Amino acid sequence: MSDLLTIENLHASVDETPILKGVNLTVRAGEIHALMGPNGSGKSTLSKVLMGHPSYKVTDGKILFKGTDVTELSPNDRANLGMFMAFQHPEAIPGVSVVQFLRQALTNRTGIDYTVLELRLKVMDAMRDLGMDASFADRYLNEGFSGGERKRNEILQMAILEPDVAVLDETDSGLDIDALQTVADGVNRLTSDERGFLIITHYQRLLDFVKPHHVHVFVDGAILVSGGSELAERLEADGYESFRPS
């Protein structure tokens, strides 16, 4: 399996406050990684730094995507290369329909200028596979969407853009069981030997539906321990405090 995302000794800060304190992680093609940690541990900071959020400063280490150093690249450049992030709280964009948004994003990603009809057919196929209502495509992006609809829209974007690496930042946050199942089904459908996932979550419940190959316990800006899916079960039973150094 080839290395898709490699994080080497990554340190980052916001407003001169250190948040990430030496993160090392490799996501290979075909792998699903779950990063689990308590609130305030720096999980979401890691996702934002991976995608190049300008508010966060990398102070040491680097991020490699398929062997290329992307640490200094813009979020747009990273996305066009094949990195994707599903947000915890996706923003609404009034006046821009789901189809319009996806057309522009896919053109940027592939360099192909899809017609509206071509893109609509592609979106309809993906929505059918994901069990989504066709009327969804013409609604303004996330405007008036429920929490579950916003998360389904993120999965739809992932299906259309076909990234090499997808980072899901607490995509399960605030979802009822039906919406959680929809998100999990989407991830499972999009899992392939060529794609890698990094699922960032606080709870184990998403991992009841999506089975990770690797689980990492993230506390105080660093990975404390890594293991298999049994690690998530231990977290559920013993909590994060059991992993803190004594």
Write the layout of secondary structure elements.
Layout: E1 3-14, E2 17-28, E3 32-36, H1 43-50, E4 57-65, E5 68-69, H2 75-81, E6 83-86, E7 93-97, H3 98-110, H4 116-130, E8 140-141, H5 147-161, E9 165-169, H6 177-190, E10 196-201, E11 214-219, E12 222-227, H7 230-238
Helix pairs in contact: 3-4, 3-5, 4-5, 5-6
What is the overall number of helices? Answer: 7
Counted up, domains total 1
**What Rg do the Cα atoms give?**
18 Å
- The CATH class label is Alpha Beta
Overall residue-averaged pLDDT value:
88
Uncertain parts: none
**Under the CATH scheme, which architecture would be assigned?**
3-Layer(aba) Sandwich
General form: globular
Biggest sheet details: 6 strands, mixed
- Note the gap between the termini: 37 Å
User: How are helices and strands ordered from N to C?
Assistant: EEEHEEHEEHHEHEHEEEH
User: What is the strand content?
Assistant: 25-35%
CATH fold type: Rossmann fold
Q: Tally of extended strands?
A: 12
What class, by secondary structure content? alpha/beta
Widest sheet, order of strands: 6-9-10-3-11-12
* CATH H-tier superfamily: P-loop containing nucleotide triphosphate hydrolases
Helical coverage, percent range: 25-40%
